[in-house]
Structures are given as C-alpha cells and as structure tokens.
User: What shape does this take?
Amino acid sequence: MADFRTSTHRERWILQPQDLMERWAEVNQRAAKTLAQCGTTRLKVDPVDGSLSFPDPAPDHVEGSSDIKPLSYEEEQLTRVFYEQKIQEVCAAFKFPHKIQATAIIYFKRFYLQWSVMEHHPKHIMLTCVYASCKVEENHVSAEELGKGIQQDHQIILNNEMILLKSLDFDLIVYAPYRSIEGFIDDLEDFCRAGNGAYQRLTDLRQTAISQVDKMMLTDAPFLYTPGQLALAALHKSNDAHRVLNFERYLESVFSRQHADCPVEQFVQSINAINYLVDQLKIPTVKDMRHIDRKLKHCLDPSSHDEHKKKEKKSKHKSKRTSTDAQLINSNNMVALQKIQIEFGLLDPAQQQYVELLSWPADIALTRDNNFCDGARYATHLALLYVRCLGTSPFVTYSLSQGKMQQEV
Assistant: This one.
C-alpha cells in the first residue's frame, strides 16, 4: 500500500522556500542567456526519446544584439499560475475528479522547476500534464479526445510526453490534499459525535475546504507542506466560516493520537503560513497576460517579433494619417454643410435645424480636392435623412465625376 512517509514525493519534492527561488531564478537566467546567444529560447524535443537540442544561433544574429526581452522572474511566476488555473478549467470541463486535477498541477509545477516557460510553452506542457495524469490515475482519455475537446492538436500532447516524464524523473506517484480531507471529515464525524443536523454542517465544511485546496494548489504550498498539512489548513479556514467545532481542540486530539513530535502551536503556525500564501495569491487575467504572452511568443519565435514591429509601424503611420484627415474633415464641415444647402436650396431659416441634422457624420465632409469623401453609400443615407427630415421625396444621386450631390424630382 502506498505510504506518503516513504514516498519520493516526501523525499524529493518537499522543498524549502529558498530552494524554490534558486531553481526558478536559475532556469530564468539560463533561458535569458540562450536568448542573448541565439536570438530564441525554443528547444527542439525528440518525441521518441525526449532528447533535447538547443537552438543554433541565426546566421545573422550577433550575441547581445537582439531587442527581444526575456520574461522576468515575476512574469514567469504569473505565467505558471495562469496555466495552472487553466489545468483546473480543463479538468472541470472534462469532469475529471480532483485527484487528476491535483496530479496534473503537481506535474506542471515540477516540470517548471527544471525548465523556463521560455523554453517550453506552458500551453503545450499543460495539456501533456493532464494527459499523463489521466494515465497514472487510471482514468484514461486518449490524446485525440483530449485535443479535440479543447480544440488543440493532439500531436503536441504526444510530442511532449517523454520530455515531461524525464523531467519528473519518472516520479509519477503524487499525493494530494483532497484524499486527506475525506479522511479528516470521517474522523470529525466521530469527534463531533455528529447527529443528523451536524452531518449537513460537516458536508458544508468539506465543500468549502475543497474550494480552499483548489486555491492552495495554485500557490507554492504543495512544494512546501505535506498533503495532510494542506488538508488541515483548508479545514481550519473552512471552519472559520462555518463554526462547526473547536478546531484547536480537534488538533490537540489528532496530535495526541499520532504522538507527533512538534507541538500543536508550531503546527498552527504552519497552518497560518499556508493560508497566508492563499491570501496573497494573485491569479492573472487574460488582460494581464497579453503583454507577457506577447513577450513569450517573441522569445520562442523571433520572426513573430519582426511581424509585430511591422504591424506596429504600420499602425502608427495609419494613426497619424487618420489624425491628419480628421483635422481636415473638422475644418471642412461647415464648407460641406454650405455646399449641401446650396445644392438643395435649403436657405429657409425654418429648415435650418433639419439641415444641421445632416451635418454630423464625418462622411459628408470634403477631402483635399473638395469632393465628398464617401460616395454612393453615404449619398443613399443622406437621401433618406433628407426625406425624413424635410417631408419631401426627391431622388438624390451622387455624381462621381463631378463630386457633388444632385437632386432630381
């Protein structure tokens, strides 16, 4: 029977905060160095054996000359959290159990202890983590079905499977807090001597605790604390909301039965530290990710950076031209109005208010050669306004050759 105390999860993947920061900083600096040397960070993965080859410098690339900026340490952190939440959304869409979701997130976290998001796009690794998790937890879903369900190429999932397993060092058995919560809830039924009314309160306690664990899985807590600690921290937070029991007394009961080495007070400090991580969690929105995602795309594919610069230059030129035309349109609005008045003989002051209704769209203004700037489309619209406002029914056309309005009865 699997036992957390003798598992590779406890032996190799419960770390100290300083270890985490050093590993993340190391992979971030490595990717930034690769970008400076080669002009790109994309690594080529052999789908058969998972072997990697680093990018060769582009023929015209001069080291340090690229204006593509690498992601910062903080931007990588936000990117990881964003895609960890996406794993939860994918698992919810497929109605996978919490165990699969937790395993996939832990795989994802462990993978990016070895690699930067600039080296392997997290969107691809995310899907492979879900796929591998389904296999390990014996809830098999084919790569084709998974890819089709979220409209992604299933071959990407398969291509990254071996590099994922190698990066995890094939430590595939992981322990999640969800199962621990179920065990503690069973224990609480005996501790509270739950009657019929208390069962519903314990059910509410359980549901809120599961939601709290969902948030914990997006923090660094799964690297720093055991699943049992995470489960008790979630139940403690849930009990603050539902007031089902005296939680400190329950902790004393647990520690007395387990003959734990550390005092209850020290464990309560760990619980508070876990819940503090949840309180400090910031989940980036799609809007927050736009700039980061653009930088990531440029790191992985430098040609996209060149395309972006061209579009940006074209957009600026277009914006400048539009601004110039707008100024010209504003200066000619009165001239345009007078031309319409003369053209239709609308000089009666009583009809002036109707004429002003015709002057608001920029389309009736003149261009540099004093012609109306739109043509037949707006002429039709103007004719309809003329009929509605003045109660007459002229047939109005636009002369493309003469560039003016014409009225025919």
In short: Residues 305-310, 346-377, 387-409 have pLDDT under 50 and may be disordered. The first helix runs from residue 8 to 13.
